[in-house]
Design a protein that fits this description.
alpha/beta, FAD/NAD(P)-binding domain, 5-stranded parallel β-sheet, 8-stranded mixed β-sheet, Alpha-Beta Plaits, 449 residues
Length: 449
């Protein structure tokens, strides 16, 4: 913690992963950080209503896992002590991208765990900070604004129980306000109420449906892997994932798009798994015991709000997490992006909260978001309608498709692919001369067949 704080107070709206990671950064720079969360947090790593997708599979990409280790020393060991599964993502995983992919060098070390365990453990780590105050069961209704300085100076909030006789609005002032309230954020409306423009929204439809179930593996089943990933096939557009998590259980998610959604009934769920382009996941479930009901979820669209493009925006107010950009969850980018936003916030605060701080932060985050947004929406546009993409986008997508087609036969290329997926390498590596040469040779061979 900094020996000398830059500012006195900060408010975070929303206490999900993005809000909690923002809190860890802000505790280095502010005397007092107050986090306002609509839910009451569970005492154990259990489901809470404010995260309806909390029972679904979540990944923290390896880039994000490494950031967590920097934020919370020995975080991996603490995860493991609570049952998280150590995993090498290249050597202890079964990947199917059009065909079975090779196992690669054991250098992609991380952990498997549920989102419920991750959020709970981050909260336990933050409990050690006396300058963090968490107000549970409350919601922010308005921003407080100072017209003369064009600054957001605080928030109005109240208990979520509107029938309470003491449910009056309360004012809370701060030097910086962070909106981490998720995809249902009211920031666009709040900005318009203050006389500002709402940000332009870039939307890419997904129409994804997925369903998750917990299983207990059969005691005689000795899996040579700790995870299975089967890429969604084009016809039908179905995919599946299996991840070993704490408690020795499996989380299994099946996904489909454009109305071809996995069913929520036992036999139909298994039949859907049987229809995937690889039998590996279905075979694993054949003798496994269901340990929960099937939890369904729908996801309509990726949405990026371009706050960095606003001609004017209020000072002392920034947006992070899904309130800024929400991705197709099947790619597992959201929590890692939240960790990267925390790093950018730290860098900006080290330079001081001068005029234009909010705009500077949003511009830096927009540059970081360009890569995960491109990776997620490139695939989703491909899965929806090629006519919606321009010539350059179609050409790039065709090139990436050719790379993916090579993965089952090329271990070194597959390792590079995994490093890009886990945000350890920039996608520019796909255009390295050696990769481009391999791709050209592959295309020529395919044309001769």
């Amino acid at each position: 913690m900094s020996s000398q704080f830059q500012k006195k107070t900060d408010i975070i709206i929303g206490g999900s992963i993005a809000g909690l990671l923002a809190a860890r950064t802000l505790l280095k720079h502010f005397e007092q950080v107050t986090l306002i969360e609509r839910d009451m947090y569970p005492q154990e790593p259990n489901f809470r209503p404010g995260i309806p997708q909390g029972r679904q599979i979540h990944f923290t990409l390896l880039r994000g896992q490494r950031i967590l280790e920097n934020l919370f020393p020995s975080f991996g060991a603490k995860l493991q002590s609570h049952g998280a599964i150590p995993r090498d993502y290249g050597n202890e995983s079964l990947y199917f991208y059009r065909d079975l992919c090779p196992r690669v060098s054991p250098i992609l070390h991380g952990w498997n765990y549920s989102r419920l365990l991750l959020e709970w453990l981050i909260r336990q780590e933050l409990n050690a900070y006396s300058n963090l105050k968490i107000i549970e069961g409350h919601e922010v209704t308005h921003l407080l604004f100072e017209e003369s300085s064009q600054k957001v100076t605080g928030v109005q909030f109240r208990e979520r129980n509107h029938t309470s006789p003491n449910n009056a609005l309360q004012d809370l002032h701060a030097d910086l306000i962070v909106d981490a309230s998720g995809s249902s954020s009211h920031t666009s409306k709040w900005l318009e109420d203050l006389g500002y423009e709402a940000p332009r929204e870039e939307v890419v439809r997904v129409d994804l449906g997925y369903a998750t179930r917990f299983y207990e593996p059969h005691t005689d089943f000795k899996a040579p892997w700790k995870g299975i990933a089967i890429q969604a096939s084009a016809h039908p557009p179905r995919g599946g994932l299996l991840m070993e998590i704490e408690g020795g259980r499996w989380m299994v998610v099946l996904s489909g798009t454009n109305g071809d959604y996995p069913p929520l009934e036992n036999e139909a769920f298994l039949e859907f798994a049987h229809s995937l382009p690889s039998p590996a996941l279905y075979d694993a479930l054949t003798n496994a015991k269901p340990d929960s009901k099937i939890f369904g979820y729908r996801y309509a669209e990726n949405c990026l709000r371009h706050f960095e493009q606003l001609p004017r925006q209020p000072e002392q107010f920034i947006i992070v997490g899904d309130a800024l950009c929400n991705f197709n969850p099947i790619y597992g980018q959201g929590m890692t992006v939240a960790a990267l936003e925390g790093q950018i916030l730290d860098e900006c605060l080290q330079k001081g909260m001068t005029k234009g701080f909010s705009h500077m932060f949003h511009k830096k985050v927009a540059r970081m978001l360009a890569v995960p947004w491109m990776l997620a929406t490139g695939a989703d546009r491909h899965d929806s309608n090629a006519k919606t993409r321009g010539f350059t986008s179609n050409l790039t997508r065709s090139y990436i498709d050719t790379i993916i087609a090579q993965l089952p036969q090329d271990p070194s290329l597959f390792l590079t692919f995994l490093e890009v997926v886990h945000m350890l390498r920039h996608p520019i590596w796909f255009f390295h001369p050696m990769v481009m040469l391999k791709t050209l040779i592959y295309q020529l061979r395919q044309q001769k067949k």
